[in-house]
From TrEMBL:
Transmembrane segments: none annotated. The gene is DCAF12. It is found in: Cytoplasm, Cytoskeleton, Microtubule organizing center, Centrosome. Keywords: Repeat, WD repeat. This is DDB1- and CUL4-associated factor 12. Pathway: Protein modification. WD repeats lie at residues 139-179. Belongs to the WD repeat DCAF12 family. Residues 69-412 form the DDB1- and CUL4-associated factor 12 beta-propeller domain. Residues 1-34 are annotated as: Disordered. Component of the DCX(DCAF12) E3 ubiquitin ligase complex, at least composed of CUL4 (CUL4A or CUL4B), DDB1, DCAF12 and RBX1. Residues 1-12 have a biased composition (Basic residues). Gene3D superfamilies: YVTN repeat-like/Quinoprotein amine dehydrogenase (2.130.10.10).
Length: 412
């Protein structure tokens, strides 16, 4: 039985503080295969180096409009933008959900394949790197949008969908070989269509089965375990190798807007972002041992989270980036001296980077509901460090439902 498709955004409200749950791409800008460099011990924190060093592409053409399925590659040295064709299903006429955009981009461990959404937001598209030649489309699994993707090996990826299911896909040597052969004999991009290797529904809470949407995934490569967060306030753990086997499900301490998830390899914990907290889960410990910290930005929600060494970076719906030191168990704070060009802050306040203006479409919705508001912060729907930890890519857009806009910045 087909599941009811419910909008991922709140309805256009009288108050512009309502939010959406889009998750943007996680795109690595440094494509080198070198091992990650550790920060020199003389640096207290990489974020003090990043602060005040935002680089933005200035023209409106530099931004791809959200909620439309476009895929671009941006050369951050030259600002050249290349549009990549999105991949279609076997039967493109069956696509009925238009205008929801791409919610995830992930590179495989060797950085030779890229997984993202297709023309149909329910389908998984695979491209080869660095050429971005199309490889295949997985188009027979999910019945609703793909919200998250996680590679569990160089050739296998898991997709999490709004229909409450997780799909396991394998890009076999045969698929890669046939894709190369087709490219050699055709001047038009040709790609294969693959079938899921496994398709599993996450457990549903009896009291709220329609809100059992898979919102975020994170993979623990050491234990071959895949963490998943659902919008009904649960964390699920699966064994992920050649198939998906459920290990446990646990209720999260904060159950509203659980929309992002990351795994810290050095700390063996998952970080879950909710409406106002980051919760740290160790699957080896009982659920009552879950530690949570408040972001101090209530109401806007935590929209992205990541680990880099001992620093957890938190992106909020108010366009802020906060930095939590897991060793000291506190957020990094401002110093007395502010960086040049930044707004002075009191010592003791959370250290914060803030997104810029971005681009906003002044369409009919904006004119009818929001034209009297001067500025909308761009929620940080995704962020990603390069391998050196000295460059931080940030992307997002406005929170209020109905608004179309976007922001992309590279801090270095």
């Amino acid at each position: 039985m087909a599941r009811k498709a419910v909008s991922r955004k709140r309805k256009a409200p009288a108050s512009p503080g309502a939010g959406s749950d889009a998750q943007g791409p996680q795109f690595g800008w440094d494509r080198s295969l070198q091992k990650r460099k550790r920060l020199p011990p003389v640096k207290r924190s990489l974020v003090y180096y990043l602060k005040g060093r935002e680089v933005k592409l200035q023209s409106e053409a530099s931004y791809s409009r959200v909620l439309v399925s476009h895929l671009f590659v941006v050369d951050v040295q030259t600002s050249q933008i290349t549009k990549i064709p999105i991949l279609k299903d076997r039967e493109p006429g069956g696509v009925t959900q238009q205008g929801c955009g791409i919610h995830a981009i992930e590179l495989n461990p060797s950085r030779t394949l890229l997984a993202t959404g297709g023309d149909n937001p329910n389908s998984l598209a695979i491209y080869r790197l660095p050429t971005l030649d199309p490889v295949c489309v997985g188009d027979d699994g999910h019945k609703d949008w793909i919200f998250s993707i996680a590679w569990i090996s160089d050739t296998m990826a898991v997709s999490g969908s709004r229909d409450g299911s997780m799909g396991l896909w394998e890009v076999t040597d045969d698929v890669l070989t046939k894709s190369d052969a087709m490219h050699n004999v055709s001047r038009v991009p040709v790609y294969a269509h693959i079938t899921h290797k496994a398709l599993k529904d996450i457990p549903k809470e009896d009291t709220n089965p329609d809100n059992c949407k898979v919102r975020a995934l994170a993979f623990n490569n050491k234990n071959k375990e895949l963490g998943a967060v659902s919008l009904d306030g649960y964390f699920h753990l699966w064994k992920a190798e050649n198939t998906l086997s459920k290990l446990l499900s646990t209720k999260l301490p904060y159950c509203r807007e659980n929309v992002c998830l990351a795994y810290g390899n050095e700390w063996s914990v998952y970080a879950v972002g909710s409406q106002a907290h980051v919760s740290f889960l160790d699957p080896r410990q009982p659920s009552y041992n879950v530690k949570s910290v408040c972001s101090r930005e209530r109401g806007s929600g935590i929209r992205s989270v990541s680990f880099y060494e001992h620093i957890i970076t938190v992106g909020t719906g108010q366009g802020s980036l906060l930095f939590y030191d897991i060793r000291a168990q506190r957020f990094l704070e401002e110093k007395l001296s502010a960086c040049y060009g930044s707004k002075p802050r009191l010592a003791g306040e959370n250290l914060k980077l803030t997104t810029g203006k971005g681009w906003l479409n002044h369409d009919e919705t904006w004119r009818n509901y929001f034209s009297d508001i001067d500025f909308f912060p761009n929620a940080v729907y995704t962020h990603c460090y390069d391998s050196s930890g000295t460059k931080l890519f940030v992307a997002g857009g406005p929170l209020p439902s109905g608004l179309h806009g976007n922001y992309a910045g590279l801090w270095s």
